[in-house]
Amino acid sequence: MVCRPLLLALLMCVLTAGAGAAQSAAGMSCPGCALEGANYKRADLSGADLSGARLMDAVFHRATLFKAVFRGADLTGANLNKTNAQLADFSDAVMPGVLFYESDGSRANFSGADMEGARMQGARLLQANLTHADLGRAYLTDARLDGAIAANAVLAGANLIGASLARADLTGANLADAGLIQARLRGAVLRGADLSGADLFNADLTEVDLTDANLSGARLTRAKMRGAILDGAVMTKTIMPDGSVHE
Question: In degrees to the nearest 10, what's the CA dihedral of 67, 34, 133, 98?
Answer without folding.
Answer: -90
